[in-house]
Structure formats: C-alpha cells, structure tokens
Design a protein that fits this description.
Distance between the termini: 36 Å
Subunit structure: Homohexamer.
Protein name: GTP cyclohydrolase 1 type 2 homolog
Structural class: alpha/beta
Pfam families: DUF34_NIF3 (PF01784)
Number of helices: 9
GO molecular function: metal ion binding
Radius of gyration: 19 Å
Keywords: Metal-binding
Strand content: 25-35%
Amino acid sequence: MIQLSDIVSFCDQRANTHQVKDFSGALNGLQFANDGVVSKVGAAVDAGLVPFQKAVEAKIDFLIVHHGMFWSGARRVVDAEYEKIRTLVDGNLAVYSCHLPLDAHTEIGNNAILAKKLGIAPAGSFLPYEGTDIGFIGHWTSSRADLRAALKGLFGHKFSAMEFGSRAPKKICVLSGSGASAIEHVKATGADTFITGELRQHHYNYAQEAGLNVYACGHYATETFGISALAAEAAKKFNLKWEFIKTDCPL
C-alpha cells in the first residue's frame, strides 16, 4: 500500500493543482482524507453519492474527481450530503479534486487530450483566467466532414452540431465542460470552429451570425479525460490499479 500523502503530493505536482487559480469554492487538492494509505485509485467526473458508492464497491480508496465536494460555502450535512460523508467514512475513501488545472494542463488536461484524440494539432491557447489560459487552440488540416466523423467516433451520436463555418476548418478552439463564457472569445482568436461541452440555446444564433462551426459534445463527456489521465499516471507511478467510475450522465 502507498501513503496517502505521497500520492497527493504526486497529483499536486503533476496537475499543477495549486499553481493554477480556480473559482473560490473549488478547493482543489485533497478534500477528504482516509486512514492514510492507498491501495487502488479511481477517477470520476463528479463527487456525488452514486460515484462514491460505486468507488467503494470497486474497493477504491483514493478517488480523483473534476467537480469536487465544495462549491458554494457552508451547507447542512443532512440527507444526501450526510449519505456522502457516511459513504466516505464507512468506505475509507479519500477524495482528491482537480478542476481548472485539469482543463488547462497542456499534457493531461481535458482540452489537450480531447484535441489529441480528434487529431487536432496544438497551436496555442485562449481564455485567460487569473493568469492561466484555460482553452486550447489547434490546427486542422482536413475537412469539416472528417472532423464530424472524428467527433462521432469519440462521442457516438451524443453531440450537437451547428455548422455555420468553413467546410474546411483551419483553426479550432477546444474548451471542455461549459463553453458559455468562451464562445464569444472564439471569433477573436481567428478560429472558425469551436468544440465544447455544453452551451445555451441562444448560442445557436450566435454561431449562425458569427459564421462558426460549433460542436457541443456534453459537459460530462468532455471532462472524463483529465481525471482518467491523472489517475492512470498516479497508479503507474505507485504500481497500483485504477478504475474509471462511470455514471450515465447525458448532459
């Protein structure tokens, strides 16, 4: 077994967990401790009751999540919140959260891995937040049809396509999760295409009027990559097994 402090230190350093500033409620890093040792690593997008229960069933005792346990300040530990805490304590499950650092990371971040899986060559970054660019910019050398086929291969039919831009995209912006705050910044980068997780209804009109290709592939689906990469590297570093905890989130 591995010391919890050792694997936390590895994750902190590899993901730049405390170097990248995040929203005030994110509390990146170790959020909930166990008895101090780790025998199996897990990864889940959300720090929810069901992922916790599945992790305990899988005999995971160190769970890396993208959306952590604490976002909006103090709240009562009752009902589902109580069940979460009880599950963690009874299951000896530690929770490690890493949000924006695992969006922005140029090697194991959601955006970088998503782009790599689609065959988009890195060319820069965009959308600065507190000194760090969160989004990915890349070059595409094939057709729009080929890009759509690549998206289908990665996400199946679970993505929405709004194709108002070039049939031969050249510059693509990628931002996992919510793209609502970023879509209006895409045009300023000179990109003709935007790949993200989720948007709002009025962004259809914006894409049409701005002449952009926009693909919304799911908030959850686009944020599975970073946690999986970090969990895999941590498991390899310490010669442990790891497992992705899947939930059927369609959003």
